Amino acid sequence: MKIQKEEFKGNFFKECPCSPEAVSCGYYNINLHTGCPYSCSYCILQTYLETKDPVFFTNYEKAVSELNEAQKHLKYLRVSTGELSDSLAYDRETNFSDQIFSVMKKFPDIVFEFKTKSANVDNLLKRAPKKNIVVSWSLNPEQIIKREEPGTASLKERLIAMERVQDHGYKISIHFDPLILAEGWKGLYRELIEKIGGIVKSESIAWWSLGALRFPESLKHHIFKHKNSRLFYGELIKGYDNKYRYFKPLRRELFRFVR
What we know:
32% helix; three-stranded mixed beta sheet
């Protein structure tokens, strides 16, 4: 694996691209690197990144300047590097998390989230936790991880990493996104939640999000390249924003059960 370093010409700081007319999630991205080693079947990066090779940007001072400007106009800010890459996938090779700590030290009122499907937390455990730094995991039942998230850490590995980070004093967050309907899904998600409940202390949780499977038309042919994927086994319809989703009654049942 070759990690490239270059200067970024665009804007680092961007609002999360929610669907038109949808209530904003209030989330912001600060894209300090791109490229991801994982091969999740549903990943939107397949449609607009030319290569999976990692690129880390060197002009952090521009990112700091943009955060300074944003803080003048936005009272509450939650940012992450998890839009164009996994926040910790390359941290063993790059120790990039050190750069994040250096930047966020200047912004104690901005909450930063490391969002990952890895178990790469060793570098985080070498540092004292910060109140404004949260470490989060996207989680699914192991059966779905194996089928739809190849290359990522196993559920067991993620939960061990989560427990280590929590015990070190970090706040953690959990993302059930995307929730995926599969045979026996209620039993699968009940078992997953029970496993999390055996590890996580409620006072350690910063937030826990739910989001059902959805994807644009442009992702369909990429999903078909994943021979083991079963994302199309459930019936999907195109919504007002031209994204495919489960029927609303199924989505409601999914959210209500998991909640």
